Amino acid sequence: MGLRRNQLLSRRHFCLCCMSSAAFAATGGWLTPRQAFAEARGLVTLIKDSAASSPVTAYKLRGNVTVLEGSGGNIAVLTGPDGKLLVDAGIGVSRPQLTKTLSGLGPDPVAHLINTHWHFDHADGNEWLHSVGAKIIAHENTRKHLSEIQRVEDWDYNFLPSPAGAIPSEILSANRSLKLNGTSIEMKPYKPAHTDGDLSVTFGEADILHAGDTYWNGIYPFIDYSTGGSIDGMIVASDSNLAAATDNTIIIPGHGKPVSNKSELKAFRDMLVDIRDKVAALKKAGRTLEETVAAKPTAAHDAKWGQFVIDPPFFTKLVYEGV
Ligand SMILES: [Zn+2]
Predict the structure, then answer these.
(1) CB of 275 closer than 8 Å to CB of 319
(2) Which of 121, 213, 217, 283 could make an S-S bridge to 72, C-beta 3.0–4.6 Å?
């Protein structure tokens, strides 16, 4: 566990999505629910403590759009006189770093926040951002998951309902457009993919797509089956991201190197399809999960994609669950 935990802490893209991977690795694969719970609870504290001292790095993209890395998932910021608009809220304890970084991008207050989905590392900052004036917009399923006790089986963990100020007040279940700061903003629900409440956000003039956790740049993704995610949904979402992008589009992933493009996204999609096919063939041939993990169906991709907390055995398990 020590090595794995240090590895976790040495990277800046911590997320709750990753907790059970660490727990999984610690025991060579399998944990009792009680062990997993203890590990998960410990890691929540670790992730929070670590985010509290992690720097936030800003990358200027195009037009008045910037991406911030260092507080959970990658955060997009649109600036201008209508007030800042954020895509995702990061982890609450990063408030001091985020406040400083945001004020460095211009004097206007945060007026809008869009959640790409309900996970902690994307929505934990909702409460403080709402308290400074952000109207929160999300998919109706995101509001539902933030409002209720939410159990995530793969973490054996129950999340408590969010405080009132953190609950999105504007809900969508179909495409929706906004015009703010001279920019056309388009929000589009995916079919269930990483969760059942994923949204993409595009900034039209700047040609930028934030794909939320339907896209992890250069690392195996978490897939949350507890709230409607699936490997096949991830592949469908990847195809829709590819269809929405040109070679000029800047693509922001939920996790991984925050400034990406269509060719990197295509590599992610092709990796998902190849591993899905290999795992499905093994499962169809009657292999158990343990036998499937032992057959190393991800081997061809591990050097490139398996170096982060969703490691090859855990990703194999996530794919096996959905085929
Ligand atoms: Zn997520």
Answers:
(1) yes
(2) 121
Residue type present at position 55? P
Q: What is the pTM of this model?
A: 0.88
CA distances, 286 to each of 30, 226, 295, 298, 314 (Å): 20, 24, 13, 18, 19
In a structure prediction context, what are the per-residue pLDDT tens digits for the chain, which is 323 residues long? Answer: 233 333 343 333 444 444 444 444 443 344 444 444 455 555 566 667 778 888 999 999 999 999 999 999 999 999 999 999 999 999 999 999 999 999 999 999 999 999 999 999 999 999 999 999 999 999 999 999 999 998 887 766 778 899 999 999 999 999 999 999 999 999 999 999 999 999 999 999 999 999 999 999 999 999 999 999 999 999 999 999 999 999 999 999 999 999 999 999 999 999 999 999 999 999 999 999 999 999 999 999 999 999 887 899 999 999 999 99
286 CA distance to ligand 1 centroid (A)?
31
Element (H, E) at 217: strand 216-217
Ligand 1 center from residue 193 Cα (angstroms): 10
315 Cα to the center of ligand 1, angstroms: 14
Q: Distance (Å, rounded) from C-alpha 81 to C-alpha 109?
A: 9
The CA 107 to ligand 1 mean position distance, Å, reads 30
Residue type, 285: A
Please tell me the distance between residue 194's alpha carbon and the centre of ligand 1 in angstroms: 7
Among all chains, which residue has been given the structure tokens 């269509």? 262
Structure tokens at 159: 């999340």
